Amino acid sequence: MSQIVHALDRARTIQHSSPKPSRAEVEAAVRTIIRWTGDDPDRDGLIETPARVTRSFEEFFAGYEQRPAEILEKTFEEIEGYDEMIALRGIRFESHCEHHMAPIIGQAWVAYIPNGRVVGISKLARVVDVYARRLQIQEKMTAQIANTINDVLKPQGVGVIIKAAHHCMTTRGVHKPDTDLVTSRMLGCFRDNALTRQEFLGMVD
């Protein structure tokens, strides 16, 4: 199954990144946006902005160049039969709404119960980061994280909870600050066993 996840993720990356505009085209597009706002892209304060924005976008959307399934492929089997929950809490991330390209700022809680092998805990945070660094909706991102961990590690179960503030509704639109969206994805024993699910939910601040 991990090979299928890897192949699908590679196909999506190729599909979304090709043909890829040149840096000059991106900078020209930013200059057009600046002119559209009513400002002058040639004034001193803005003349380097297109280049800066392009570099920022490279960082914001670096997840398209990474394949999260590969991150989880190195595992450890010498775990002395450990079969209890492993949870990484409060993984901070920054993403961008695919509808308005506005920031999504939040935290993720990721847990799984191993089935004979475990992965380095930093890899869980990296999987969150890869999916966050793409244009997203929170519901899809939550499912992507859980599904990838489930497909590659094949644990007894996976739980993912995300809490995030969406600037597309806090700084524009309905202007509702101090709100966050909570989504979850429960697979395996996290879905089937109410006690396991409740134990995980109790870890979420």
Structural description of this entry:
The structure is a single chain. The chain has two domains: 7-60, GTP Cyclohydrolase I, Chain A, domain 1, CATH 1.10.286.10; 76-201, GTP cyclohydrolase I, C-terminal domain/NADPH-dependent 7-cyano-7-deazaguanine reductase, N-terminal domain (GTP Cyclohydrolase I, domain 2, 2-Layer Sandwich), CATH 3.30.1130. Helices cover 44% and strands 23% of the residues. It is built from nine helices and seven strands; from the N terminus they run ααααββββαβαβαβαα. The strands form two sheets. Strands 5-2-3-6-7 form a five-stranded mixed beta sheet, sandwiched between helices. The protein has a two-stranded antiparallel sheet with strand order 1-4. Helix 2 crosses helix 3 and helix 5 runs antiparallel to helix 6 (138-153). The model has no long low-confidence stretch (mean pLDDT 92).
List the defining traits of the structure above:
205 residues, alpha+beta, GTP Cyclohydrolase I, Chain A, domain 1, GTP Cyclohydrolase I, domain 2, 2 domains, five-stranded mixed β-sheet, two-stranded antiparallel ribbon, 9 helices, 7 strands, 44% helix, elongated
Beta percentage is 15-25%
Structural class: alpha+beta
| Topology-level CATH name of the largest domain | GTP Cyclohydrolase I, domain 2
In the predicted model, the low-confidence regions spanning at least 5 consecutive residues are none
Order of helices and strands: HHHHEEEEHEHEHEHH
Number of helices: 9
Biggest β-sheet: strands ordered side by side in the sheet: 5-2-3-6-7
The end-to-end distance, rounded to whole angstroms, is 33 Å
Residues in helix, %: 40-55%
Rg computed from alpha carbons, rounded to a whole number of angstroms? 20 Å
